[in-house]
């Protein structure tokens, strides 16, 4: 059993990271283990921005979005020298195990660190994109998709009042999960994602025809990886002759108080991660599959690509 562990958040922030961190810290303390927080991700590890946490350190954070530990991207950590420096700082504090909360890039950093140093590493999938292989759920995805859905509901009101087409660009450079889930739930006519081909000329013809038949408005949800919402909106407006407006949601999708699902599941995963790393278990990522907590090999997780369920793509087309 380890006597001292640390936790960090890395990559893009996501609602529920605080809940997961809180669970790691309080579980470790409950087990009689010292726990340290690393500020600003891997960059903080390199800069020795590491401090011991207690139960009060993580009070009043479960309801907050973002991450109280902070997060940053680190080019230096990508180098062997940078990772060696990070490991030396961990050893200086007597840290024997590490919990990493972040997306695919952050977990890849953990895999690289694991190969270099004899230190147990456990990962938790923290990303709004829900694109970590091996798990149905990632921390923050539920809150983000509901933020998008709320925007769709509000934009629909103005769209119907003016008989407009509204193009909504959402996050998702390589994964269309957010766009697809919010698009289906929000009743969008078209959902454009990087995983599925689409014909913009055909979409414009269909939109023009449907407006002639009396349609009052249309919603088009675009994942950023499928193309620029601004450019797509411009093309749609020009080819249909219909008043078309574009809304790029941007970083508002990352913020906000986490949903019940993100608080609860992040807490469950945080406890499981803490117990695992304290026991010396290493190179695993904890996630959910069919509602149950599962452990995924860390190297499998970062070396495989999660794909969008083709049934969701089919359903979006059927319900358009």
Provide keyphrases for this structure.
320 residues, elongated, 4-stranded parallel β-sheet, 7-stranded mixed β-sheet, alpha/beta
Q: Which secondary structure elements does this structure contain, and how are they paired or packed?
A:
Layout: E1 4-9, H1 17-30, E2 34-38, H2 41-46, E3 50-53, H3 80-92, E4 97-102, H4 104-116, E5 121-125, H5 141-162, E6 165-170, H6 177-185, E7 190-192, H7 200-212, E8 218-223, H8 229-240, E9 244-248, H9 260-278, E10 284-289, E11 292-297, H10 298-303, H11 310-319
Parallel strand pairs: 1-2, 1-4, 4-5, 5-10, 6-8, 6-9, 7-8
Antiparallel strand pairs: 2-3, 10-11
Helix pairs in contact: 1-9, 5-6, 6-11, 7-8
User: What would the principal axes of the Cα set say about the shape?
Assistant: elongated
Can you count the beta strands? 11
Largest sheet: 7 strands, mixed
The level of helicity is 40-55%
In angstroms, what is the radius of gyration?
A: 22 Å
Multimeric state of these chains? Answer: single chain
Tell me the β content: 15-25%
Summed over residues and divided by their number, the pLDDT gives a mean of 96
Strand line-up in the sheet with most strands: 3-2-1-4-5-10-11
Please tell me about this protein's structure:
Helices cover about 45% and strands about 20% of the residues. By secondary structure, it is an alpha/beta fold. Helix 1 links the parallel strand 1 (about 5-10) and strand 2. The longest helix has 22 residues, at about 140-160. The model has no long low-confidence stretch (mean pLDDT about 95).
